[in-house]
Amino acid sequence: MDDMKLKLSEAVAARLSAAPASKEKDELIEELSDNLYRRFLEMSGAGVPEEEAFKYFDIFKKTLSGGIGRNMLNMEFPLDQEMPGGTQEFLMKLKNSKLEDDMLLEEFYDKI
Fold it and tell me: Which of 28, 55, 59, 110 lies 20 to 30 Å (CA to CA) from residue 8?
């Protein structure tokens, strides 16, 4: 299983390679990799065959590929979204939860 964690970490780092090196980038790579690995373990523990779990991994890799204007959007946030209770605050809560708060995740899924 450690091999899978390494693969996930390498995939996330590769997709974020265009971003300038920073502490925040390293933390984001670690958070995403850890979360994906936990999800992989959950799927494996739930009886999902490893082959199927790898299919999900391939889908994940595709979601991080591309560029702005092609299959990624550069989203502008109106100034009022930076106020308390706005979208920015919600996204920061989601980030700080390390995607482990099921209620926040459900709210996020509902929004998208």
Answer: 110
